[in-house]
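Look at one such:
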Amino acid sequence: MEVKAMERRWLSLAALCAGTLMIILDQTVVNVALPAIAGDLGFTASGLAWVINAYLIPFGGLLLLAGRLGDLLGRKRVFLAGLAVFTVASLLCGLAWSPEVLLVARFVQGVGGAVSSAVILGMIVTLFPAARDRAKALGVYSFVQASGGSIGSLAGGVLTQSASWHWIFLINLPIGVATFLAAVRFLDDESGSGKGADSGSAVLVTAALMLGVYTIVEVESHGWGSTHTLGFGAVSVALLIAFVVRQARTPNPLLPLRILTSRSVAGANVVQVLLIAAMFGFQFLVVLYLQRVLGYDSLQAGLSMLPVAVAIGAVSLGLSARLNTRFGARRVLVAGLGLLLAGMVLLSRAPIDAGFVLDVLPAMLALGIGFGTAMPALMVLAMSDATPEDSGLTSGLVNTTAQVGGALGLSVLAVLAATRTAAAEQPTREALLSGYHLGFTVGAALVAAALVTALVWWHPSRLTSSQLEVR
């Protein structure tokens, strides 16, 4: 009986990770297909960026609300609803006959992706209460999250070249249906707390996060010091402040402020913003470096990213759980961040005529091993204080900071690299390399800030004896 129960847990994890992978792939699989989409549907250069943004804005804006809805209505119910919306929207994306239809479908996709992914981490924590099993499960989840971006870039190129851009969306149909049926079969039913949340708070936080993500993704078009960026950014911050004030006063808050007072939750989210910002910037800039400086084509660039995914998988699928159990998540996180820092520093010194094996691969392996080590440990720390009643909200918060960190990192590093390159008289390989070096240097600084935060935040002298056992 015990064996069957454990098998059911791991089958449930497989269903949750399949949903996670499908949603993460959709954030990157589109990038390679953008030229084909523009040629087929007639997108303008400025409108084409909204194929990405129309997905990111609702995704980043709804994660926190969706996580709380999972606690209130039942996480399985919310996960299935989001998965259904995402799958139907994928069908509409694949059949899109005009720019307007594709953008609307991408927005709905973002809604479905946020609703389903927001509760996954909370469900995993509930499924695996034992520390050793939880560490293994979070390692698998972290691998799926971390490797999804690299797999998406490769899959987008293969599907677009061998079939058409429509299939980057249509492929989600069989995956979505199979995942839905598996989730219905294996996930346990949950009733939720049944307590209603303040609707005004929901409006405030959703508007604040959507507006914040919109402001960040438009920075490259308007600049950090523009009236557009400063104005919309100020409104977003004001809405977020109003939301926090409302949480302190309402008897039934959407985000109980006690969650933010948890040392592990607060520290893990700060570290994650810095870490994800650096890694998203790395994924974007290193592909440009491979293509525009080293002369790789799109398929070669995609294949060059595979060592990162392989290294992440080799570490996070099993080894990270043993490391967390033996040494504690805090020490493992610090070690992983150290490797990530080394990888970023190596890339910041990559030469103009680099050989892949000698000059690029060592950095890729350091980044892959470091990320595969750090992320499972960070997830253990982030969810270690989550109660069953708040695990969905904590999961949504973790996913929200990841999205905000990714959007910030991509915007900051991309703008800095482009500005450095533009300062040259013409975009030569040397000028491009100088811009990418600056981006990787800033990425290294972000990882260094995350490392310092982890060392200070979880210093043994600041933890209780019970916390030291976990960390």
In short: The chain has 21 helices and no strands. Confidence is low (pLDDT under 50) at residues 465-470. The first helix runs from residue 2 to 41. The CA atoms of residues 289 and 295 lie 8 Å apart.
